[in-house]
């Protein structure tokens, strides 16, 4: 029992932060909700599947469950949540200098906004690739789709983001001059 | 972008091409400026997304882990594949524990209210003539008066529990707040207060209301068709409370009261969830919220904090 708990603890320490990050990006920056859902995913793993999954599968299982939980959240009152969570973020006390805090927040916000313009499956595939460094096969396993769909989704996501990024750069450049 | 290699560039940076194909794309990159730019842009995008940082605090992380492990242990049964039976055990076990906890909590609240109702009136009586005694340097007089009255009142008061705690406590708390302006030097020994007493009063009342709502929500009956019988009342109540919660949280944040602010912060998504339930929510939706309430231990926290606030206001 103790060793099982130790293994679970190790897995939790390894993947909880990255699962939170994945969910935060997927949900469009709702950090408290992302932490809740990450915790819920681990809880489900511990209650139902822990010990029965083959070695190395737990990580994919977690991301699959986390994604499903996030999709459920999308179906709920999306905008109200986002509004409230943004207020929560805005009310959080700053830990760094105001300039650093501002810059980081702007950067984060920009990435989140860009990601949020993508369809959910493209966003998930891209996040799993860029942040979690999963292979196409592994992403397909998490999302329950074929490798070729993953490949196309990731390419489309990148192409779309690149276009938006360059458009934005042009707009910023024009307004600066 | 008209080049045939664009999609392959995406696969190239992911290391998903065969070595021969990868070499071919790399050679192409040397001769095509457009593709070279695309390659660079994709890599820049990667670094932007990969460097996204989350603010997961170790304390929060450890707390989450502890909760998962402890709840997992409670739910653990000997054999694998018995999740259904395990679920059944839970559903029978939880009400019993909750009922026992409720009894203990009710006893504690009763005791606290009993003590409070004993204290309250003497304070009000002392306070009415306060200008006179404070002007004269007789520090022990009010204390003596208080002590002499308390035992006399004590036996007569046990039945007064409910009215003291019930709604309309505008007066109730206002009476409690009277000693605060430090009319006499002895009363100044009360703990230093960062937030205004009005805000604390409102927060205490808000905690009580939220606690009642969450208890009611915990008892919502789920029928056999997998839908919750009736949540209209809980939903309406949550809608009323969520805005108040937001205002109070903002106020607590501004006053630097981290403990209250974080409790209000955890309460808010739950209130929102309840407020956004449909007319006939399915059982799963109700269960998810209940589990979240359970996991965050929010009912107990609300109770403890409302009691602490009320006690601080009393003092």
Give the tags:
heterodimer, A: 177 residues, mainly alpha, Arc Repressor Mutant, subunit A, 2 domains, 8 helices, B: 315 residues, 14 helices, 0% strand
Helical/strand content category of chain B: mainly alpha
Which residues of chain A sit in consecutive blocks of at least 5 with pLDDT less than 50? 79-83
User: How is the main sheet of chain A built?
Assistant: none
Cα radius of gyration of chain A in angstroms? 18 Å
> How does the helix and strand content of chain A classify structurally?
mainly alpha
Mean pLDDT of chain A: 82
Description:
The complex is a heterodimer of chains A (177) and B (315). By secondary structure, chain A is an all-alpha fold. Chain A has 2 domains: 1-92, no CATH class; 97-177, Arc Repressor Mutant, subunit A. Chain A is 82% helix and 0% strand. Chain A has 8 helices and no strands. Chain A has helices at residues 2-27, 31-49, 58-75, 78-91, 98-116, 120-130, 136-143, 147-176. In chain A, helix 1 packs antiparallel against helix 2 and helix 2 crosses helix 3 (58-75). The radius of gyration of chain A is 18 Å and the shape is globular. With 315 residues, chain B is an all-alpha fold. Among the domains of chain B are: 6-45, no CATH class; 97-130 and 141-166, no CATH class; 197-314. In chain B, 73% of the residues lie in helices and 0% in strands. Chain B contains 14 helices and no strands. Chain B has helices spanning 6-13, 19-31, 33-50, 58-75, 83-127, 131-135, 141-153, 161-165, 169-177, 197-218, 232-255, 258-275, 283-296, 298-314. The longest helix of chain B is centred in the middle third of the chain and has 45 residues, at 83-127. The radius of gyration of chain B is 30 Å and the shape is elongated. Chain B starts with 5 loop residues before the first helix and ends with a helix. The model of chain B is unreliable at 77-92 and 121-193 (pLDDT under 50).
């Amino acid at each position: 029992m103790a060793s099982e708990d130790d293994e679970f603890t190790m897995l939790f320490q390894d993947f909880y932060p990255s699962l939170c990050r994945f969910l935060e990006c997927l949900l469009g920056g709702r950090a408290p909700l992302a932490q809740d859902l990450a915790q819920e995913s681990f809880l489900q793993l511990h209650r139902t599947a822990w010990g029965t999954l083959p070695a190395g599968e737990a990580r994919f299982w977690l991301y699959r469950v986390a994604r499903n939980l996030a999709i459920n959240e999308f179906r709920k009152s999306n905008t109200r949540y986002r509004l409230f969570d943004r207020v929560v973020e805005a009310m959080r006390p700053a830990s760094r200098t105001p300039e650093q805090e501002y810059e980081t927040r702007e950067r984060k916000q920009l990435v989140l906004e860009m990601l949020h313009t993508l369809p959910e499956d493209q966003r998930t595939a891209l996040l799993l690739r860029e942040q979690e460094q999963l292979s196409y096969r592994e992403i397909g396993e998490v999302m329950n789709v074929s490798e070729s769909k993953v490949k196309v989704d990731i390419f489309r996501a990148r192409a779309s983001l690149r276009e938006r990024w360059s458009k934005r750069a042009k707009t910023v450049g024009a307004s600066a001059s | 972008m008209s080049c045939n290699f664009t999609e392959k560039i995406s696969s190239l940076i992911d290391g998903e091409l065969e070595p021969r194909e990868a070499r071919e794309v790399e050679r192409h990159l040397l001769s095509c400026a457009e593709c070279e730019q695309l390659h660079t842009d994709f890599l820049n995008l990667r670094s932007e997304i990969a460097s996204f940082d989350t603010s997961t605090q170790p304390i929060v992380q450890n707390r989450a882990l502890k909760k998962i492990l402890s709840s997992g242990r409670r739910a653990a049964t000997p054999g694998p594949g018995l999740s259904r039976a395990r679920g059944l055990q839970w559903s029978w076990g939880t009400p019993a524990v909750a009922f026992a906890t409720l009894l203990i909590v009710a006893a504690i609240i009763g005791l606290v209210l009993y003590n409070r109702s004993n204290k309250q009136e003497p304070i009000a009586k002392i306070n009415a003539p306060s200008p006179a005694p404070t002007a004269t340097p007789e520090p022990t007089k009010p204390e003596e008066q208080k002590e002499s009255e308390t035992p006399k009142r004590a036996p007569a008061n046990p039945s007064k529990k409910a009215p003291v705690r019930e709604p309309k406590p505008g007066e109730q708390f206002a009476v409690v707040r009277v000693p605060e302006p430090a009319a006499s030097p002895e009363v100044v020994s009360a703990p230093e207060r960062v937030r205004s007493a009005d805000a604390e009063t409102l927060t205490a009342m808000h905690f009580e209301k939220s606690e009642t709502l969450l208890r009611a929500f915990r008892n919502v009956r789920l029928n056999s068709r997998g839908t919750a019988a009736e949540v209209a009342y809980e939903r309406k109540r949550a809608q009323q409370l969520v805005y108040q919660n937001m205002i109070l949280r903002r106020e607590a944040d501004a006053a630097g009261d981290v403990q209250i602010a974080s409790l209000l912060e955890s309460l808010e998504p739950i209130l929102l969830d309840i407020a956004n339930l449909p007319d006939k929510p399915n059982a799963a939706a109700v269960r998810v919220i209940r589990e979240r309430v359970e996991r965050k231990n929010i009912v107990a926290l609300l109770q403890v904090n409302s009691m602490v606030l009320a006690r601080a206001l009393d003092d």
